[in-house]
Design brief:
Blueprint: H1 22-30, E1 36-39, H2 42-45, H3 49-61, E2 65-68, E3 73-74, H4 78-111, H5 124-135, H6 140-146, E4 149-152, E5 155-157, H7 161-170
Parallel strand pairs: 1-2
Antiparallel strand pairs: 2-3, 4-5
Helix pairs in contact: 6-7
InterPro entries: Resolv_N (IPR006119), Resolvase-like_N_sf (IPR036162), SSR_resolvase (IPR050639)
Organism: Streptosporangium album
Keywords: DNA recombination, DNA-binding
Length: about 180
């Protein structure tokens, strides 16, 4: 960006899909008539065709140019505007293909009995044992010390007290917390 001659570089840490992007808003406020907004690629500027077209049209209305380095698009010319619309449509199409492929992959994994996310640490027997101990009046920190979570060959660790509270609460037990 500095090699292209940009006066100021704005960097957003949120996704291009997110409508709330403070750095993008600051960038738009910074631009003046005759400036050109330079972005590394179209997908860094916006994820949907409608958003890209709206934002670039707003820049054009404000007499601000738009350049995308990766796609080599310069909307200050009629040909550049045509190429912009073609690339924006392709970017949205590719993103939709990725979403469809991801959803199909997740559905296929679920059909094979696989589920995403972190594996459960407490099995049903451990939960039943913890509930039994709690019903007998054993304090939650003592329950945590009695439980062992298998972590590998002949090894194990004790769950945190907070984890035991959470598991008991998820199991429907009302456990008062010490504060």
């Amino acid at each position: 960006m500095t090699a292209f001659g940009c006066r100021r570089i704005f960097t957003d840490s949120t996704s291009g899909r997110n409508a709330q992007r403070p750095e993008l808003e600051a960038c738009h406020a910074f631009l003046a008539v005759g400036d050109t907004l330079v972005v590394p690629s179209l997908d860094r500027y916006g994820r949907s065709l409608a958003d890209l077209i709206t934002m670039v049209a707003d820049l054009r209305r404000r007499e601000i140019g738009f350049t995308s380095l990766q796609e080599r698009i310069d909307t200050t010319t009629p040909g550049g505007r045509l190429i912009f619309h073609v690339f924006a449509a392709l970017a949205e199409f590719i993103r939709e293909l990725i979403v469809i492929g991801t959803n199909e992959g997740l559905a296929a994994a679920r059909a094979r009995g696989r589920h995403g996310g972190r594996p459960k640490v407490f099995d049903d027997d451990m939960i039943a044992y913890a509930r039994t101990l709690r019903e007998r009046g054993v304090a939650v920190p003592d329950i945590a010390r009695k439980l062992v979570i298998p972590t590998g060959k002949n090894k194990g660790r004790h769950p945190s007290v907070a984890s035991v509270y959470r598991v008991l609460a998820d199991a429907g037990d009302v456990v008062p917390t010490a504060r």
